[in-house]
Automatic annotation (TrEMBL):
It is an enzyme of class 4 (lyase). Residues 47-176 form the Enolase N-terminal domain. InterPro entries: Enolase, Enolase-like_C_sf, Enolase-like_N, Enolase_C, Enolase_CS, Enolase_N. Residues 184-501 form the Enolase C-terminal TIM barrel domain. Pfam families: Enolase_C, Enolase_N. PANTHER family: CYTOSOLIC ENOLASE 3 (PTHR11902:SF56), ENOLASE (PTHR11902). Belongs to the enolase family. This is phosphopyruvate hydratase. The keyword Magnesium applies. The lineage of its organism: Eukaryota, Viridiplantae, Streptophyta, Embryophyta, Tracheophyta. Its EC number is 4.2.1.11. Pathway: Carbohydrate degradation; glycolysis; pyruvate from D-glyceraldehyde 3-phosphate: step 4/5. GO terms for cellular component: phosphopyruvate hydratase complex. Transmembrane segments: none annotated.
């Protein structure tokens, strides 16, 4: 084939002329670079290949990473949370089995992505997120995405979303906002983990997280400064009060002071882990929660942010529900029997905490199937009541919760649902009910920062990404700092409106 025949076959002469004319009109200082970019944009992007591999997440456990290839670039995404839910295995043997199951699950997901998913997506336009996600969903009709795995589906969906944004030449958060149907974007208030307990730490504190919300900051940058300073002051206070050995950190990077052990040491030189029996033990675990909140309040005051930072807790009560009661001693080998609480007892405890502290949000205060007490507590209107296990980002469970008023906020863990499109739909569902939305990481997440862009693009108003100390947490917070800097004077921080941002 001659040069002339080649030019005619691909209509290159006309395309080159158009590019040159565009460069002239734009008065491009570097015409070669301009023309190259113009020609590149003239060719529509299509997906050419999807490849997956196993990587390690923040806990050193197997996770899925995906590289989605187009005819123009390669886009990478990853998602944690494959396999068995956290806390389902007990003891060293159980943990070892869980790791093996997790590795097998990820290996299976990698094979399916490299074969079935890649074949299904080749040739599709990366800008067509809904079409891509439907193609992925069509490959896994099982309930809860059991065949392919929601985390594997999500990694592919996120990679496609990044490719779509690149093809449109817009930031990822703007691309997401377009899918949501929202022109404006909002920087979320970070729910920063400062103390860990529950199954996320080896101390006696029964609840999983204590978080701080810098609602009084003027922008996201100041919010992170306030959060980071409070976090480091908290460390100093814990060292002063309990000693340097109490500054271990939990799964989400929050400090894990063994408050109860320190209290017992004051009672008995042996420093026994087991709680003493007797009347004083009845209130001991409530005391450990209150003492933890007192530490955080002291850190806020020392940092000079009193009144500008609110508190939130993630109870994760499903982890210690036994039958119809809640075992606040669930991490203790010997139980006094005095800390099995009814749902009504738990409501009384939460009500007391809300009256004594600037506590504005409680996540998963009851078991995932305890709709009765969740509704009873929510109707008190004492704080934001966030559904995690109760909802599981499931549209049907959200619909029921809206109807019965069993909570008034959604914690969105995208890998529970599977694709970007489905995640956007449940955000809309929650916002239509005038709920709060907290976009959340997973404990031991990967370093992928997608949820930062999702929180901004979907105008969630809240994001939970752990403490300001672990790499997989900081990638999300740092991405939000970049987004705010990029938006400049157009950036809007949710601040005091953290629960009322709208997707419309």
């Amino acid at each position: 084939m001659s040069v002339q025949e080649y030019l005619e076959k691909h209509m290159l002469s006309r395309k080159i002329e158009e590019a040159v004319n565009a460069a002239v009109r734009a008065k491009a200082p570097d015409p070669v670079l301009f023309i190259a970019g113009h020609m590149r944009r003239a060719a529509p992007a299509v997906i050419t290949k999807v490849r997956a591999r196993q990587i390690l997440d923040g806990h050193g456990l197997p996770a899925v990473e995906v590289e989605l290839h187009t005819n123009k670039a390669v886009h990478r995404a990853s998602a944690a949370g494959a396999g068995a839910p956290e806390g389902t295995a007990a003891g060293a043997a159980g943990d070892a089995e869980r790791r093996k199951n997790l590795a097998r699950s990820v290996a299976d997901a990698v094979r399916v992505i490299n074969d079935k998913v890649s074949e299904a997506l080749v040739g599709l336009d990366p800008q067509q997120q809904t079409q891509i996600d439907q193609a992925i969903m069509d490959l896994d009709k099982a309930r809860h995405k059991a065949e392919l795995g929601a985390n594997a589906m999500l990694a592919v969906s996120i990679a496609a979303c990044k490719a779509g944004a690149a093809e449109k030449e817009v930031p990822l958060y703007k691309h997401i906002a377009d899918h949501v149907g929202k022109s404006a974007t909002t920087l979320p208030v970070p729910a920063i983990t400062v103390i860990n307990g529950g199954r996320h730490a080896g101390n006696a504190i029964p609840i999983q997280e204590i978080m701080i919300l810098p609602v009084g900051a003027k922008n996201f940058e100041e919010a992170m400064q306030m959060g980071s300073e409070t976090y480091h002051h908290l460390k100093d206070i814990i060292v002063e009060k309990y000693g340097s050995e109490s500054c271990n950190i939990g799964n989400d990077g929050g400090f894990a002071p063994n408050i109860f052990r320190q209290i017992l040491f004051l009672i008995s030189p042996s420093g026994m882990w087991e709680p003493p029996y007797g009347s004083q033990n009845t209130l001991s675990f409530l005391f450990s929660i209150s003492e933890s909140l007192d530490l955080v309040i002291a850190a806020i005051e020392r940092a000079g942010y009193n009144g500008r930072i609110k508190l939130a807790i993630n109870v994760a009560a499903t982890d210690f529900c036994a039958g119809k009661k809640y075992d606040l001693e669930f991490k203790s080998a010997k139980k006094s029997g005095q800390n099995f609480k009814t749902g009504d007892d738990m409501i009384e405890m939460y009500s007391q905490l809300c009256s004594e502290y600037p506590l504005v949000s409680i996540e998963q205060p009851f078991d995932k199937d305890d709709w009765e007490h969740s509704k009873k507590f929510t109707t008190l209107e004492l704080c934001q009541v966030v559904g995690d296990d109760l909802l599981m980002s499931d549209p049907e469970r959200i619909k029921r919760a809206v109807s019965e008023y069993t909570c008034n906020a959604l914690v969105l863990k995208a890998n529970q649902i599977g694709t970007v499109t489905e995640a956007i739909e449940v955000v809309k569902q929650a916002k239509d009910a005038h709920w709060g939305v907290m976009v959340s990481h997973r404990s031991g997440d990967t370093e992928d920062s997608f949820i930062a862009d999702l929180a901004v693009g979907a105008a969630a108003g809240q994001i939970k990404a752990g403490a300001p100390c672990r790499g997989e947490c900081l990638t999300k917070y740092n991405q939000l700092l970049r987004i705010e800097d990029e938006l400049g004077s157009e950036s809007v921080y949710a601040g005091e409106n953290w629960r009322t941002t709208s997707t419309s």
